[in-house]
Known about the structure:
Blueprint: E1 22-25, E2 28-31, H1 39-68, H2 72-77, H3 83-100, H4 104-110, H5 113-132, H6 137-165, H7 171-180, H8 182-196, H9 203-211, H10 213-222, H11 230-235, H12 239-250, H13 258-277, H14 289-304, H15 310-315, H16 317-322, H17 329-351, H18 354-357, H19 359-386, H20 390-409, H21 413-421, H22 424-456, H23 461-478, H24 491-495, H25 502-516
Antiparallel strand pairs: 1-2
Amino acid sequence: xxxxxxxxxxxxxxxxxxxxxYFFFAGRMFPRIKWWKDTNLRRLYIYxxxxxxxxxxxxxxxxxxxxxxxxxxxxxxxxxxKGSKLGVFNAAMSMGSLIGMFFxxxxxxxxxxxxxxxxxxxxxxxxxxxxxxxxxxxMFIAARLVLGLGDTIVLGAAPLLIAEIAHxxxxxxxxxxxxASYHSGAFIASWVTYGTLKIKSDWxxxxxxxxxxxxxxxxxxxMWWIPESPRYxxxxxxxxxxxxxxAHYHASDDRENEFVQLEFTEIRTAITLDKEAEANGWLDLxxxxxxxxxxxxxxxxxxxxxxxxxxxxSYYLAxxxxxxxxxxxxxxxxxxxxxxxxxxxxxxxxxxxxxxxGRRPTYLISxxxxxxxxxxxxxxxxxxxxxxxxxxGTAFVFMIFVYGTFYDFKxxxxxxxxxxxxxxxxxxxxxxWLNFCVTAALTFNQYANSVALDALAWKYYIFYCVFLLxxxxxxxLFIIETRYTPLEEINKFFxxxxxxxxxxxxxxxxxxxxxxxxxxxxxVEKI
Length: 527
């Protein structure tokens, strides 16, 4: 964290809450559009829900691997893996993600966000076929590696596309829902594995593997109709196509709509300035004070997302439960299903509060809450090791739910906060860096957790207690509030005096064009 200084957010730059029924853009206030009554915007949001399924597929995998460990047929087929072998089983997908990760920004910047989603889904379908038909340890691991490759491409493209086609009034909620949708997949997989427990054959684990393909198939079928990012099109010198997309979905095909003209001009200006400054390389991630702030924060939240103790219940719930005397597979799968059901509710609820509560308070509540819950979790585990009691096992399960509640407060913010604080020129690369941090932490966790649990049992939890305390300090000192602010205007919170006032430039250009056309400038209330 030495890359960035402690953040002091200027009071004058703190986000301002718009009146009810309005949103701010380019220094002006516009009435919110009722998307459910606007045909084109409603269709756009349906497309975004399809894109959100990309993370649903990711969540399905994480929960499925947790559930498979409780299935006797999976355990017997692979000779009861534990320790380092179980670690390889769980870490293989993350290893596959690391293989193709740094190719992703090149691809989505050169060939488009849609290209990344399509290619990633095709690779994932291939991997699901290999995994479902796996006949040995090597084949299963190979499938997991290929699955990770496809997953990293999809997850490196879809959140960017969502952020860049969403209407500014709802962007934060939609991208946060994208991050939170991990739990929708986890919810489905947890109950699928609970149901397949009753299948008395290898299909008890092959069927959940096969069902991983459903989300990818739906996405591939509908990608033909989903629009490309207007920002990508402007960057590729196709401004007319970009304006058509913005006008069609954000203003019912009215190219002269003042909001659309401001939006188009602000995006074009930001991308032009990035090009002129040639600020789109890997070194640009740390070339300025503002970018160092961004990357320092992104690095922290990326590692924190996996090093908060959540990996223990995401991938190693069965051994954790057994250490507390809970050994019945049906009970373990029931607890897993209950956790994912509750997690899905918390994630969806918090996604709609992302602007109301704010990014900084959400991160603080979540991190302090997980520290509190995990500390009690550790104490209960220590007491059980000294004197096993059924009541302690029950209390342990309760604290896992409390911990999960606090952790899920911030889950969806990982994608939305990262995409919004990065300017277009480095957005794909910065988001890839986030995914690298998450995957590196996850790979280490998935392998190390298994080995450490075998060697240290409950004492391993102490490491996470200490690390969570460290997280609280970092979140308090460095997270910057960005709510209510359009995507291109968030630069003012990070770049300070060097930030270009894109709102002012956009207003000036639109007004100049109107004056040239001989039309009066329609004034909208300024903030």
